[in-house]
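seq as requested:
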Amino acid sequence: MLFGAATAAGSVLTVATHRLGDVMVVRCLGRITFGYADRLKVVVKQARTPVVVLDLAETIAIDAAGLGMLVSLQSWAQAAGTTLKLMNLRPAVEELFELTNLKDVFAVCSVPEMFDLLCRAMRWPDAADEPADFVPQHHELIAGGSAA
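struct tokens:
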């Protein structure tokens, strides 16, 4: 599924979810900022998988609200028995985690774990719950905060 927060100037935050067996990969494109961070939280909590991986390869900025939401998600994951991991941190995002002393709060996917996810994606969909011609659904989150 694809969730986006759009403005006239372009996409502020787009979230694409991809279920790979017991892992939900949540791709975050753009900025995790005030006004949109809570929507990402809702998407992650709806994952209903034992492992959720936030792919931050295309995350260009995170503000205080975004950091707060990520910390809140980590707390929720621990209480819910869900493993929350980050992957593909850009240098600026990794530096932000270091500056705010949050780097040790989050587990980051190792190279073998990322390789495993890539292998799952290459052979997916093999599961009976998704058709062979599976294409993620696309939804837009408009500036008002509702999914269309």
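The domain at 2-142 is CATH 3.30.750.24 (Transcription Regulator spoIIAA).
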